[in-house]
Amino acid sequence: MAVPAAMAYGADQSGLVYGYVFSAAGAGRAVDTAGAVAWLGEGGKPEREFIWLHFNSAHAATEHWLRRHLDLPEEFTDVLKEGSRSTRIEQVHRSLIAVVNDVVYDLMRQSSLQVATLWLSVEPRCLLSVRSQPLQSVDRLRAAVKAGETFPSPLALVVHLLRDQADVLVQIMRGTAEKVDRIEDSFLADRLPERANLGGIRRDLVRLQRLLAPEPAALFRLVSRPPDWVTLEDAQDLQQSTEEFAVVLR
C-alpha cells in the first residue's frame, strides 16, 4: 500500500526517522532500517552496545515494523494507542516507559501554547522513541550524538531529554517574568493592561504544569528501586535531572 507523502514525511518506508548504534564507549553511528534489523538479529553483541530507534507514529508502516522486530511491553503499546501526553517515567517489568513533552511557547508574540509528545520504551540495550510530529528536544539530542557526545546507556539519552525539557521551562519562565514586569509597569503608569493577558498567562502555566509534571509516586519508586540493569551513575543522573526539573516546575 502506498504511503501518502504527508504521512511519510521525515521517515523511511518502515516509519524509521533515524537510528543509531552506540558502542561500548558510548559513541553513536547511524544505521538505516536494514542495519537496525541486522543489529537486532545479531547474536554475541559486544557488551554495553545498544541501539536507539526513532520512529514516526503517523507513518502507516510503523506499528507493523515494531510488532515484527521488537518485543515491546504491552503497557507501552497501550500508551501509544491512548496517545497519553502527561509527562512520566515508570518501571514496567524490566523496562522503563517514559512520556516526554516538547513545548513551543512565545509570550512576546502571544502565540498559543504548542505541545508535541514523545513516547519512549527503555530497555538495557534498546531505546525506542516514537513521535507523531517533530520535536526540538529530539533534534538537539541527535545533534549531540552527531557532534560526538558519548552516551553510555539508553537511560543516559533519556536523562539528556529531561534536562533539555527543564531548559525549555527556564526559558518560558524568564519570558513570563518579563511579560508580568511589563504589566506591573502599566499599573504603575496608570495604564490598565487587558485582563485577558493575565488570564491567558495563568491558563497556559496551569496547562504546562499539568502536562509537564511527572507522576511523583511512580518516579519515587523508580529512583528508589531502579531495574537491576540501571547503573548507579545513571540512577544518580536520573534523580538529579528530575529534581532539577521539579524545582523549575515549582
Characterise the protein shown here.
- Strand 4 and strand 5 form a beta hairpin.
- Helix 6 runs parallel beside helix 9.
- It contains nine helices and seven strands, in the order H-E-E-H-E-H-H-E-E-E-E-H-H-H-H-H.
- It has a seven-stranded mixed sheet, sandwiched between helices.
- The protein is an alpha+beta fold.
- 48% of the residues lie in helices and 20% in strands.
- The N terminus is likely disordered.
- The chain starts with a helix and ends with a helix.
- It is elongated.
In short:
By secondary structure, this protein is of the alpha+beta class. It has helices at 5-8, 33-41, 62-69, 74-82, 136-146, 154-188, 195-212, 216-224, 232-249, and strands at 16-22, 28-31, 50-56, 88-92, 95-104, 114-123, 126-131.
Essential attributes:
250 residues, alpha+beta, seven-stranded mixed β-sheet, 7 strands, 48% helix
SSE blueprint and pairings:
Blueprint: H1 5-8, E1 16-22, E2 28-31, H2 33-41, E3 50-56, H3 62-69, H4 74-82, E4 88-92, E5 95-104, E6 114-123, E7 126-131, H5 136-146, H6 154-188, H7 195-212, H8 216-224, H9 232-249
Helix pairs in contact: 5-6, 6-9
Q: Can you tell me the overall shape?
A: elongated
Unreliable runs = 1-9
The number of E-state strands comes to 7
- Give the count of helical stretches: 9
Task: Provide the gyration radius in Å.
Answer: 20 Å
Oligomer: single chain
Please trace the helix and strand order, writing H or E for each element. Answer: HEEHEHHEEEEHHHHH
Mean pLDDT score:
81
> How can the largest sheet be summarized?
7 strands, mixed
Measured between the Cα atoms of the first and last residue, the distance is 49 Å
Strands of the widest sheet, in order across it, are: 2-1-3-7-6-5-4
* Structural classification: alpha+beta
What is the strand content? 15-25%
Summarize the amount of helix as a percent range: 40-55%
